[in-house]
Structure formats: structure tokens, C-alpha cells
Design a protein that fits this description.
Layout lengths: L10 E2 L3 E3 L7 E2 L2 E2 L6 E4 L3 E4 L4 E6 L2 E3 L12 E2 L9
Antiparallel strand pairs: 1-9, 2-5, 3-4, 5-6, 7-8
Length: 86
């Protein structure tokens, strides 16, 4: 199944957005988010991205994809609809 990558600024399902990402990799001008990068959740406060795809990495860190989860349990919502990975 194909999923778009998560980037800095992309939303969380309960509100909030991804606040940090790769220092090197971007898609369409925004930094790619990875497992361990930070986000703010309107329901749960500060959190980190808990999941990433093991086959798609940046500097060995798994890249987060659409519907992957943060540590608070919220799902990530990708803003790129026309780019898919895995």
C-alpha cells in the first residue's frame, strides 16, 4: 500500500502539527518528518513521532508516513497527496 510522507507542518488527527524534521531531506520544499521528531498535539501537548518505515530512512532514521502514530496515539495526516512511498 502506498502512503505519502509526513513533512514539517503536517497535521495530527486531533489538531496540532509536526514541528521538527530532517536537517537534510525535503519533499516539495518542506523537511521530511522521521521517527523521534517532534510535534504538538492540541489534545495531548508536546509529543514525538513514534513510528517510521524501516525501509525508508534519512541518516538511518525511519521516515514517517501518512497515518503513522505519535507517542500520544494520534495519527499523522500528510498534506502531500501525489507523492507516495512504500
Amino acid at each position: 500500500m502506498m502512503h505519502p510522507p509526513i513533512r514539517v507542518g503536517d497535521a495530527l488527527e486531533h489538531g496540532g502539527h509536526v514541528t521538527s524534521g530532517s536537517p537534510d531531506m525535503d519533499f516539495a520544499g518542506r523537511r521530511v518528518a522521521r521517527q523521534g521528531d517532534e510535534a504538538t498535539c492540541e489534545r495531548h501537548g508536546r509529543t514525538t513521532i513514534a513510528e517510521g518505515h524501516p525501509c525508508f530512512t534519512d541518516r538511518g532514521v525511519p521516515i514517517a508516513l501518512h497515518h503513522y502514530r505519535c507517542a500520544c496515539g494520534c495519527r499523522l495526516i500528510a498534506s502531500l497527496a501525489n507523492v507516495n512511498i512504500a
